[in-house]
Amino acid sequence: QLHLVESGGGLVQPGVSLRLSCAASGGTVSNYVMGWFRQAPGKERESVAVIIPNGGTTLHADSVKGRFTISRNNAENTVDLQMDTLKPEDTAVYLCNADESGWVYWGQGTQVTVSS
User: Fold this and answer.
1) How does strand 78-83 pair with strand 92-100?
2) Looking at residue 56, what is its pLDDT?
């Protein structure tokens, strides 16, 4: 069974960068549709970015396009989210997700707080 562990969250000021990492075990990230989601207090969980298994096509939500970049490291079996020019509205718990033909796996999440 695939197991996902996120890391890299923290408390940062607006405008700075953070890099989140999702480490997978029990499976290979290149075989899954891998995604980053986020959930802010009182709000629904939303998709932030997705990377497709074949070819590595990526999709980013409009709210983060141009600031966030999802990438996959096959050698380390991780999926990362580079977050630049962070804004207070990016504050949320960020969760890693893997989907293979309807089998969905979630990590426990990592908190990102953007505040001055």
Assistant:
1) unpaired
2) 83
The three state secondary structure string of 43-67 is CCCEEEEEECCCCCCEEECCCCCCC
Q: CB of 95 within 8 A of CB of 79? A: no
pLDDT band at 55 (very low <50, low <70, confident <90, very high): confident
Tell how strand 58-60 and strand 46-51 pair up: antiparallel
CA 81 to CA 18: how far, in whole Å? 8
The Cα–Cα gap between 75 and 53 comes to: 15
Structure tokens at 47: 């998709």
pLDDT tens per residue, range 31-48: 999 999 999 999 999 999
